[in-house]
Design brief:
The structure is a homohexamer of 329-residue chains.
Chain A lengths: L1 H6 L30 E6 L14 H8 L14 H4 L2 E6 L7 H17 L3 E6 L5 H12 L3 E5 L19 H7 L9 E5 L8 H8 L2 E4 H7 L1 H11 L3 E7 L21 H9 L5 E8 L10 H34 L2
Parallel strand pairs in A: 1-2, 1-3, 3-8, 4-5, 4-7, 5-6, 7-8
Helix pairs in contact in A: 2-11, 4-5, 5-6, 8-9, 10-11
Chain lengths: 329, 329, 329, 329, 329, 329
């Protein structure tokens, strides 16, 4: 059966990576969730963006460049398409003219994925989409630990007099009980803030906040240690591409200088191994401001690394099961 | 006093056009409407867009490239800065997260301009912004004749289940009585439509519809004749940049091939001389999709041509007044 | 059943055009040819290109921007998705390292489409791909009349010492008997040529050649008259996007100044109504050299116009069949 | 000997056009003027530009894309490389920090070309470079007729308080006696002007001025008639790429909407056959603002068309000489 | 009064950052220097550039993207708009056709700013503009310590035979006595040099020179130590954006590989706290070569960090004054 | 004689770097190999590329931007144009339609360079071109040690069923005996791989493989130590620009995130001093995907650093020869 799984992934040695319908990794596009381990789900909405728009085109572009990804990940020493059945679920419905309606549509569309037990690997969209995604995931797993890589805390109360924007999702999530802030951590925060108290506000909500300067001082290993200390239980990973420096990720809505390098960002994601990841998103990729597709390529790789984390978890479960079976008389 | 007027316009022979704060034509930016003839007003909103966003940056970019415009327009043989006192009024307030609230903000911000008797030369923004602009203008002038250059009729009833989007403003305007469809005309409509009845629907609302193919067949002169036949009384001119072909205006939200050339578009606008223009907008300029700023440069020129129409009207009023004065004993 | 057909096309009023998997017009992607009238087929190969590469990305980009197309085409007064069952067949196999092997793969992949009686609407790729496409089509329909819109005759004998490049397909096609040059015509030829005899060589092969200058002199109507005079029997339409001027189609491999406008190109394609079209391709779209996607958008529209020609033919067959049925006693 | 001439032009069938050192048409680069008929000369200076810079990169880019040009020009029915020995002379010296010194350097560097009897086909650079070029050419041929295609008259007296800028060359040229304004004509003038009298000033200097609107009204044929009426004796052709519309030539310093199409521009240049052309320039190509290289490609083609005019002149001289020789007893 | 200060800065929660006239941080544009602490001054001149032009558009673009900056800087723990009254002074006059005249214009325009006691935060422009800025500043403060972050020493004697270019300002400044080289330091120098003695020449003038390789070896902290050792008395900070690597700052005139990361550059600027900064410039931002505006965004942030240094100085003065006042009996 | 050498390099203080024919460093273009120490050779071929094409334009663009390089390299403390006679040899012949024929053409064109004893500094082109280059070099020097900086091992056996692509050159080279794998090393390998055994396969061929993660762990110094341990005897250096991170080198065919910074890449190349370098290439630069030319500028600098390594070797030979001569009685 594993051979069959694998065969779903087109062989780049035979069919060129630039060919074929642009699904994620050129995997099958289906709404059939039978036996699906990971569902890649696009959320093409940027109606919550306050500066540069364009994240509505994130899912399409990330899918397109994901063709570069391949079968084996040496950095994590795992073959994700071997261990997991992965499909491209397509996009959730959205309404570009209404953020509230869009949130309802997203939550409704993600619900069957979560209920089917598939891991949702979501591709944004602006950061406002994380809220309905969290709602759908929490319905199954209860209050979630949030691991957030981001330049901005996104925990304001209102923005433009509205409670639902790309700057407010995680305050709402805590208020609604879908995120447990005491098990949650924000990493990479930096840049000028509207209020001197913004970071304190995030901490008052319960979040641990590790600024980009903190990471520079602590190093990647210690930063990951703090993440692991914090993020117990079911974890939702949200990865705002602006955690990365504009040199590495120019195509984003509110770029902040002084961010992570790609190497650091990769190490941070790979270092999440061991957490109980139940869902993830990569957001704020805005292709109209990208060049050479480098932002989208990085985003596709980060989504791939997350999937590899899921694959390793599956492998280790499988290994311990085999061990148990062998021990049986 | 005219000399003083003129002095407000920086001399491109002395101060280079690339220098200085990027107001429209580098004119003074003020909210003081005393003695203002024309107020250039930005409306930076693209929350009504259904395909490519980015029109929120239209006002800024059009202002920037408007530096190329100069004192005398030989095509209309008029010096607009001589005849008119023109200011850059800045932008209306907008709320990127709510189209309804944005509409209220736009209407409120335009209201003092209209009441002061200034001609509002508005720079969008997506086409949804025309509705609140029309409302504010109609409050002073009553139901308006609409002259619309556009690839799309924008007269759908709902879009994404919403009544207020960039595809519905003119149905709403007719329903609200701010536009008198029988005195109105749409010019340049083309491209595939969602329903076979879309053009009939626009006509059923009362609009005259002259498609791009009609214009190609009739010629510019006859097209203008039909516009003049139709547009009696106070006229609101709305100019969607996608009336022009994507070769001339790539930076727009929903490009349609087969549009006007810049020469045709200029002739159509210049040919409006004689109409009783009371307000105008140029919309759907999306700088992230532009290159070499050619779309913005065209939009700036079109706004300039409209202002020249206003200047000619002023000049002829002034001339007849002088003539009258001379005749007095 | 027609209602069902129609339902396959996602409603842009409900699901935004920027959402979903980027198939052609967001139609279903399938290899199942049962009851299929039109199969959109990508041919992502640019190994025959002699100047700018990049046409390998043509199919992907044309699919992406085809989301802008809509249900009803007023220019041809037809609803193509009503009359035809259309699918996105995906891409043919190609081998970027071998033009000969690629030709074999293309022909093999198109063969079932042609045999199933579906109209292949092919998206290139460079112009070398037309040869294997012609071979597959001719196997069913016999020697084909070729209607070619192009800046270049593409009838050289060898290029770089090779017989199979993007400059030689139509000489090969005549030699192989898959094109009947006496029923064929090339329209739009222009620009400097390597040899003074190049056009004579094309004519000596049997082609009628109407240069861009000829079209400017004759006008569109008379040009179309010559096309209709010539192209009897089953017709293969090949549309090299460089027939259009670089202002309208910058994203192409060997741009030639002085080409058609989009309006002219649309009129030429729409004017083919009445021909017995059996297959078509749009080629030489090179996205890396495009901007604002204007070349791809034009290419998508031209493919759509071709499909509308097929739909009109289907409609008229259907109408005469109905008429016959009514006449039966 | 003609075979030898021809052999200097690399065969694009054997060596790809994207290969080799980027000289004009990949012709030999040499300062040896022995037997040279046409010397292509770059003038990489943009220190006279008042808006967008970048024309300093014009010569390099035009050379690069000129690789697309080929041996035979069907529009003029001539093989220029057969009739003329053409070399790439390289660039004149320039000093980016001083326009006056640059003018001296340009004039000095062009002088040997003119004295050797070669036709200088110059590639700018901004329009200020035409003045020293004219000086060098006039030294041999006396006061020149100027045929100028341009959006701007470039006949101001001072700009930024300076007498030598890209807005003043032709007033200076008349004052210095290197241009005979009564034999000269400006074609394509359009766009807003700083002063209502600017066109009158140009006319007062003696120039005939045919605006873009005039050309639209007169047509190409009549416009050319006026050019021929005017431009007797030795003619210097100066071709500012902004004569063309920004859709066709976005990469320029001061774009003006409403310009020529590429087809019109080509017809205007080809229509100069019969004039006694002694030198020419193509100026104001600014690659940083171009896209898809379309402006440079057009400029390269226009230079090529000029060279073909020279070739036809040579051919007809050669023909009449042969005829004379035959008649001799 | 502080509340009033603050109110001048538009609240990005209410008015979107993409809206309004593009002044620096959307602050008021005025020439009134009453009570002004910091005047942001554009210097739009690139006539001294020897490779890529375009820095004339630097001020405009930096202003535009500065909208992203916000009220509180956590990295320096200061709210600059609280402590300082900041205005956008607009641009100095320049003459694109004359570097000497431009220098006089710049000096004259900066003079009132310096005399009013405002801190000039200048935005270039190419590096030649630092010389007249230094002159104006030194007139008040005497010979200045120069802290220069740059890839190039800019201390040549002549360039193109001219003494005033973007490669010579700091030799001139030392010669004229406006810079005291013994209190000055150049940091980040790297890349190939025209002469083996160039760095020795800079040192012979009196400058300390810390190459990019030196910084890599010493680390940021030790580098800053050397800067502080050196830069006593009134300090002029000049920040050439090419000190940063082209990956982070592609939009510049003479890019040199191997430069600082954004994180390093930010640390170097923030580490200047304690110096007696009296004026600063950020230069060599060339928007035509930028993408995604990342160079301009970095430049805007660096200017903001400099302003925060000024704010901290003000705060500590204010604090000690309060302390003194409290101690009074 | 050295003065003469030096004079060949145009002085950027007198002739601007943007001027002149775009040869490498504006050096003479010649096929005369008499007394030539280094021949810069372009190899404009991308027919082996499996994802993004465009490397055919690499040589042209690298030449163009190499104008920024200057006479003295402080990082290596050497003046390469003083010690070496360097020419631009132009491009090898290629056939874009056949990889096998291209390989033969490349080998044949490089052969005289190698036989003349010149150091070939080759500019690709995709990585497939290294194989024929190695063949030509090995003919003189025997089996070569390969030092390869690259994201990919390029040691697959077949790709698309072909033995000659940009993914297979080094397996072929080992099989043919032109590379001695036991003296060879690959540095910088990273990213997902098609097969879990790909790196083992490279090692099984004999290569040492140092992944990007290994380098991050070991540091640059230790990495270089391993390179020096390994690469004895004549060394061929191949530098795939994708060894560098996409932030620094976006313009490449198969970008992989997590690569070297420019500073690291420069240190790695400079650290090769002491090896017996006999030839080198820099490949996979794809200008259509670049921006601000940053990839090409980095590639030009890397080629320059390699040439400086050759110059240092020459200098030390010269020094020891002088020492020997002095010792003679």
């Amino acid at each position: 059966m594993e051979a069959e799984m694998r065969s779903q992934f087109p062989d780049g040695h035979r069919i060129p990576r630039f060919a074929g319908i642009a699904t994620f990794c050129r995997l099958p596009h289906t709404r059939d969730l039978q036996d699906v381990d990971v569902a890649v789900v696009g959320v093409p909405f940027d109606g919550g963006a306050s500066y540069r728009p364009g994240a509505r085109y994130g899912p399409r572009k990330i899918r397109e460049v994901s063709a570069l990804l391949r079968e084996y990940n040496p950095a994590q020493d795992v073959e994700p398409f071997h261990w997991l059945r992965i499909v491209d679920y397509g996009d959730t419905a959205v309404n570009p003219a209404s953020i509230e309606e869009t949130h309802a549509l997203i939550e409704a569309d993600l619900d069957p994925v979560v209920r089917a037990g598939a891991f949702p690997m979501c591709l944004g969209g602006d950061h406002s989409v994380s809220l309905p995604l969290l709602r759908a995931v929490a319905r199954r797993y209860g209050p979630l630990a949030l691991v957030q890589f981001d330049a901005h805390p996104d925990t304001w109360n209102v923005h433009f007099g509205r409670r639902y924007t790309h700057a407010t999702p995680f305050r709402r999530a805590v208020e609604e009980g879908v995120v447990d802030a005491r098990r949650s951590i924000q990493v990479g925060i930096r840049g000028p803030l509207p209020h001197a108290t913004d970071l304190e506000d995030a901490r008052a909500l319960g979040f641990a906040v590790v600024s980009a300067d903190d990471v520079a001082r602590l190093g990647i290993t210690e930063t990951l240690h703090q993440v692991h200390e914090r993020a117990s239980g079911p974890v939702y990973l949200t990865l705002d591409i602006d955690a990365v420096d504009p040199a590495y990720a120019p195509g984003t809505g509110t770029p902040e200088v002084g961010g992570f390098t790609s190497r650091e960002m990769l190490a941070l994601v790979r270092g999440l191994a061991g957490l109980e990841l139940v869902a993830a998103d990569v957001v704020e990729v805005s292709p109209p401001y990208d060049h050479g597709d480098i932002t989208s390529i990085l985003a596709a790789n980060l989504a791939y690394e997350v999937i590899c984390l899921v694959a390793r978890r599956r492998r280790s479960v499988s290994a311990s099961r085999s061990a148990n079976e062998e021990q049986r008389p």
